[in-house]
Write a structure and sequence with these properties.
binds ligand BES; Serine Threonine Protein Phosphatase 5, Tetratricopeptide repeat; binds zinc ion; 20 helices; alpha+beta; globular; 3 domains; seven-stranded mixed β-sheet; about 20% strand; Immunoglobulin-like; Neutral Protease, domain 2
Amino acid sequence: MKLWSRAVLVAAMVLTASCRFVEQDNGAQPASNGAAAIAPILNTADARDIHSFARPREARVHHVALDLAVDFDAKRIGGTATLDIQRRPEAKEIILDDKGLEIESITDGEGEPLAWKVGAADSNLGAPLAVALRPDTERLVIRYKSAPEAEALQWLTPQQTAGKKQPYLFSQGQAILNRTWIPTQDSPGIRQSWEAKIRVPAGLTAVMSAPRAAEPITQGGESLFEYRMANSVPPYLIAIAVGDLAFKPLGPRSGVWTEPAMLDAAATELADTEKMIDAAEKLFGPYLWERYDMIVLPPSFPFGGMENPNLTFLTPTFIAGDKSLVSLIAHELAHSWSGNLATNATWADFWLNEGMTTYATYRIGEAIYGPKYAAQQYALGVDSLNEEIGTLGGARAPDTRLHIDLKGRSPDHGLTEIAYEKGAAFLRTIEATVGRERFDAWLKGWFERHRFEPVTSAIFLADIRKHLVKGDAALERKLMLDEWVYQPGLPPNMVRPDRLAFTDVDRSVAGFARGAAPDTAAWSRWNTAERLRFLSKLPRKLPKARLDALNQAFGLNGVGNMEVRFAWLELAVGNRYDPAVPSLEQFLTTQGRRKFVRPLIKALAEDSSWGRPIAARIYPRGRPLYHPLVTGELDELKLGGG
Ligand code: BES
Ligand code: ZN
């Protein structure tokens, strides 16, 4: 702000004193005065995003051009963001989302300074960045840097990578973290096309969630990479990774990036990718993003996967050596339709992204690995759904609704099995009620009608009624549509999982519970889903001798499959089983997937006499590996290391 001229300062003061926009009524578009019309953010405008300060009906960003350099020493990304905007002629300012950005200057397209002001910050949402508009302003050039603690970015030292020689950086935008490194309107209902020029130290490769726009150029110790996303995408899908990266093609339109040491293992695990793209296209319609590449990140990546367009981000913990965890790929790939083409307009309708994707994951699994596999996946999903409903307070708890109320809360509160598995069960139920053929025709139609658009629960229900129910009153009653979306719990028409999906496993669990020895032959025959079912159905309280028996029979402390290992460690911690502690320690200090780390650290911390001292030893050791969005929450347990 130092560089402001007096005139600009005065203008800024006038601006903040006099310009208070009244929220527009939903829907109505004002008569245009002949200036560029504002594209409606919604086809049926009925959603206001409480997690963004933007007021898109006044002025909205439609294209972002980044020109940035990555500084590993300072842990900053800096340069310019040029925003093309659409606005009402009378709009006096545009509001962007900003969380901790260090802004140096803002000018218009001609280099004339524009007044700007950062409003009061909220710890969750960040702050509104208001930029004054002149009557003819249609472009903003923001010179800025991200802060070293930007939550979207994780900076890894060479020690924290597989190769140990080069540093690494990756971003995670969903849900509302991209505002920590990109000054734009960070709302999923405000779609933007984008392009980026990225400068990194020579020897490193920068990849992004868009097609490459030019061959990389290396000069004077720096490499320049260019990417361009011609489609309009929600801004949470802008992503970057920088490191010592190598690429291996998997098929005509897919391939994998990762550190050289990981490349072969990653490519082997991902061998079914092209088959999955074909299966997804049969289900959803044509793949509209040209290529489907993936990047396998270092183990600190906090999620299983993230559906960044053209370039899914993946945890290395899905590599089991036998493709047993590749439903993750089917899931992220399916988001190329559900989420990336038709996008939840606000985080209250997150189920539209994840529930549809989870449903699609089962269908892709069925097409490639058969109906038995799919039935098992669905049954596991329903198990975890029921468990989640318990955790959330039972079948009447408000957060068990698909359309949820996030007022005053972070979008993270919606990241539950309700969105994923209740959403998928809803779609399974519609499918079973109308028949697969009719349902599949509707599904393709849904993506045709809503591609590159924000969608809401209301839009979804209206679309189902118009194109599937078509006034059939009996069908309408059978489907219980509103109950599914707006009421808590599970409606009575829900399709139950196949009771025979795990007959063999459930018999074995019952035997073990009655005192039988663990069935080693059965365990070695079982697939990953069956092993997970076995561990999750065991009595939650087991004496040491029984845990010893399991551990010795199945080698659980040393299991390489990370999902199975996690299920075992949860059971072990719940029973204060000391012989699992070294395995637990190794698990928590070599990967940082939130789904694994959070429940284990929390369970330890809550057990004050046995667990807490263990957590206090392990957490500070694991912490350097964990992503800011993991440590942000776990630091509150005061286990040290922060
Ligand atoms: N889009 C999600 C990840 C996400 C959701 C990140 C909300 C931030 C906020 C991704 O597609 C996902 O669901 N990942 C799952 C894997 C999947 C197989 C259930 C995960 O990371 O566990
Ligand atoms: Zn997902």
